[in-house]
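Amino Acid Chain and Its Fold in Token Form
===========================================
Purpose: to set a sequence beside its fold so the mapping can be learned.
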Amino acid sequence: MNMLVPHGLLPRLLSLLLLFLLWQLVTMAVSGDTLPSPARVFAFVVDEAQSGDLVHNVTATLSRVFVAFSLAMLIGGTIGLTLGRFPAADRLLDSWLMILLNTPALVIIILCYVWLGLSETAAITAVTLNKIPNVAVIMREGARSLDPQIEEMSRAFRFQRRTWVRHVLLPQIEPYTVASARSGLALVWKIVLVVELLGRPDGVGYALSYYFQLFNVAALLGYSLVFTTVVLIIDTVVLQPLEAYGRRWRPVSSAA
């Protein structure tokens, strides 16, 4: 069995199967319009995929997620490393970071649409601004946790800047980078849906808004499940292996 099913996958599959069974049992006790059955939701997904609308909307949302996520990781990571390495900069900008971190996402989205118009630029900017402080806070902690003994060794051997970045900085902050990426992915796609709901002509958020006006619960569940599945696949296939790779050099305690 271990050769056929990856480690830890079988319990997850059984858990999902149990969830769908419970869903089916609940639908037998309530109105079909209130909570459609899994078969009805699946039928909607198939029809929407055949029409091309599902692929178009999911692709539009994924493209926005990718652009905003990449910008937020780049800008937020740079800010976080700077604050973590330079205490003076941290004292100066910490309040700014906290203000942005605690500003409601909806406020930032509305302001971006007011200032930049109902455009793709405004949408990407709003999502990026919402994600930057989260990345910066995590990466700041990573920069603060650099091993001073390794730092001293690099100075003793007079590492060049490139060598220091490759062999001292990156291995130690990689777990923090992956942690911010995993938490950020879940945050970014949720904010993208709100951005699309308020001011975009396509995407999963737009589709949810459209079917909400039609009170089509099967469509709402269908789009939600499809996009959640896509995000989970990205996390499982890309981010979790990166996290394991980033922690490869850390000592692992042996089991008794």
